Amino acid sequence: MNTYVVTSAPPNPNGDLHVGHLSGPFLGADVQARHLRQRGHEVRYVGYSDEHSCYVPRRAAEIGSTAYQTALTFGARMEETLSLGAMHHDWFTRPLTTPKHTEIVQEFFTTLWEAGKLEVKELPVFYCTGCARYLYEAEVRGECQFCSAPSDGIYCEACGLAQESGGLGAAKCTACWEAPEQRTLKRIVFPLEEYRAQLLAYYEKAGERWRPRLRSYLDGLLANELPLTPISREADYGIPVPLDGWDGHILDTWFSGICGYLAATACLTEAQGQPELWRQQWTDPDTRIVNFLGFDCSFSHAVLWPALLMAHGDYTLPSQIVTNEFYRLEGDKFSTSRGHAIWGGDILRQISADALRFHLCLTGPEREQGNFAMKELASTVESVLVAGLQRWAQTILPLLAEDFGSTVPAGDGYAGPLTASLVDLPKRIAAALAPDSFSPQRAAAFLASTIERAVNDLPELTAARQAGAGTPEYARRLVTHLEALALVSVLATPLMPGWARHIAKHLDIPVDVLTQMPRWPEAADLPLVPEGRRLGATVPAYFHNLG
Questions:
Q1: Could you tell me the pTM of the whole model?
Q2: C-alpha of 180 from chain center
Q3: Which of 221, 242, 244, 515 has an alpha carbon 20 to 30 Å from 115's alpha carbon atom?
Q4: Can the peptide bond before residue 459 be classed as cis, meaning omega within 30 degrees of 0?
């Protein structure tokens, strides 16, 4: 058994989470955490709301509210959506109301400062004379200095590269949309280039298991000098720089982001009665840290934060960084501002969480951009879940009830096209959901093909029954179907946890009290539905076609 800390990139609380958000880090991290737990590992799945982000006051100005109230309102809405999708973390920190978050951020900064790991530089910064404010990140919009794509003032969503301070092209203030001037400002910076050798050694060891686009991104970044990275800014919203003479300066959330994971783990272990366990686990080199994020967060998670951990010296580096690409809606990018979005809270009140989870796993943007369409979701639900998995269960359990009194007969071995799945499927799902080769898309595809194979074999099962309900051939085929259904449902637990619990009751499969999941089927646990076990007579409908 290993210890894992699984994280999802922090969302900005400037709106609800839409389906594009859910399809990436949140679903991926949840599926990963559930699979690892099902395999018997100790897992802590943590995250936090990026409540000190400058996107919050920008959104507050748009809706006529305060930054504090905006962060609390949308943070609560995001948590509700994650709960509806069965994707909520073990601990999800709300930094504005959690002193531990600020404490750990400032402690981390102070350690680096006192060790001489940070520098002070005069840097160019955009300044809007009309609004009388310096402009950073969400407060300035223009063109990426590297790829010319539309970008805010820090990381380009298209190419993932960090904009130099004051380097954005055709810059405009996002409050008045006037062109700002440039001034110089004293800022605290992190000399990222000094960690090149350590980063290269880290990538050589861990990076070979990362997805190809992230590896390519890092190769391109390292072909040039790594950027000097500002970690403070002059602003009135955020965590203050804890130094004399720096009043009115805050710590950049892109610097403090790694501390959000530390703080969330600290809050979780404290709530569990072990207040120092978080530090033990984060400093233990055997702890496996698995980060889930959108590709546009690659610089922070794969470059800046590992280098900051190296500079600090105490904490373990991520063993796996799982990126995802953009998920489009009907061929176009999800857009909050244009109203081109399907909000998670809305759709999850219309269909079951498991139906959406399975479809997002099947079509999610793992290595290339994906596309969400309601008609495709409806097709998945109808063909794979209602006319597939559910029909399968609602066919074979009544047959068992009618012909064998709901008691699993002696099958004397297995028969039919599902026999190979009883051997191959656990290996395939285990490989698809392992951290180093993580692909819920492959896992969902394996499950869907097995379900299709089972449904296609139902006529043969019926023919065997008609030839003689008491014959060994019919008993073998029915037992094969029962075992395959149980296996598919148990292996699908990380993707469809609600269905797993639902069907487990009718197949008399134990569900762990703490994890609320059936355990992973090891060889000693097979068969899952042994001879003589009494099963349910039917399975109530769980999935429903979209209207």
A1: 0.95
A2: 37
A3: 221
A4: no
